[in-house]
Amino acid sequence: MKKIIIASLLAVNSCVALAQDMSTRDSLVIEPKFPLTELDTKSGVFCYYNDEWFAIPASTNVEQDSIQAAQVKNDQYGNRAVFFTVSPTYLAHLKAEASKVFINLDPRCEFPGGDGKLKEWIQDNLRIPKGYKGRERVVVNFKVHPDGSISSPRIIRPSKNKAANEEALRLVNALPKFRVMYCAPYQTNKDFSYYMPIVFTEPGLIFIRGNEPASTEANPQK
C-alpha cells in the first residue's frame, strides 16, 4: 500500500501541474500560461479527494501522512485519475485552501508554439492566388477536438476573390494538430470553436501610415 501511496503522490504533482501550476500568479488570480508545452497536454491526470474533484492551488502541498488510501482508475468522464481517501477534517482544510484563490478553469487550445508560430506558419504556407490585387482579411472558423484535430472549417468573413476563399479553406485543412489543455475533468469531451484571420496581400504591396496601400514600384528611390 505504501508503494501505491508514494506513486500516487507523484501523480498529485502531475495533476496539480496540469490544472494549476502552468500558471502566472498575482495575489488573487491564477491563469494558465501560454504557449502551452507538451507537458501541459500530455499529463492528463486528475486528482480526487473522497470522490470529489476541486481545483487546488499550486501552492498547496498535500501532506503524505494525511492520505489514508489511494487508487488509480478512470473517473466518470473517462479520464485517468487518482482517488485519494483523506479524513473529513483534512478534506475541509484542502477546500479552504482552494477557496482562497480564483483559478481559471476555462479550457484552452492553441497552435503549437503559440500565436506567433501560427502567424509564421500561415506566412510560410499561404499561396496568394495568381493575379490577386489589394489587401484584405478572410476569417475562417473551425472546430478543434479534444485530441487537437481540426474539422468543419467555414468562412465567416469572405473575400470577393473566390480563389482567396478557397485558399483560406485549404490552409485550415492543412493545419497541424493544436495543443489542448483542459483544467477540469468534466470539460475533456468538449470541442473548441476557433476563429482564424488570414490576410491576403497583393505581391509587391506595402503599407504606409493608416494601412494606405502603395506599390513598391511606384515609390521612387531617393
Description:
The chain is of the alpha+beta class and 222 residues long. It has two domains: 2-105, no CATH class; 109-218, Fusion Protein Consisting Of Minor Coat Protein, Glycine Rich Linker, Tola, And A His Tag, Chain: A, Domain 2 (2-Layer Sandwich), CATH 3.30.1150. It has helices at 2-21, 38-42, 88-98, 115-125, 162-173, and strands spanning 23-25, 29-32, 46-49, 67-74, 80-86, 102-103, 108-110, 135-144, 150-157, 179-181, 192-201, 205-208, 212-215. The model is unreliable at 1-32 and 209-222 (pLDDT under 50). The protein is 27% helix and 32% strand. It is elongated, with a radius of gyration of 24 Å.
Beta percentage is 25-35%
* Outline type: elongated
Helix content: 25-40%
Rounded radius of gyration (Å): 24 Å
Identify low-pLDDT runs. Answer: 1-32, 209-222
How do the strands line up in the largest sheet? Answer: 1-2-6
Question: Per CATH, which architecture of the largest domain?
Answer: 2-Layer Sandwich
By DSSP, the count of extended strands is 13
CATH class of the largest domain reads Alpha Beta
Which structural class do you get from the secondary structure elements? alpha+beta
Kindly report the CATH topology of the largest domain. Fusion Protein Consisting Of Minor Coat Protein, Glycine Rich Linker, Tola, And A His Tag, Chain: A, Domain 2
Total count of domains: 2
| Termini Cα gap | 81 Å
Output the number of helix runs. Answer: 5
Order of helices and strands: HEEHEEEHEEHEEHEEEE
The largest β sheet comes out as: 3 strands, mixed
Mean pLDDT: 77
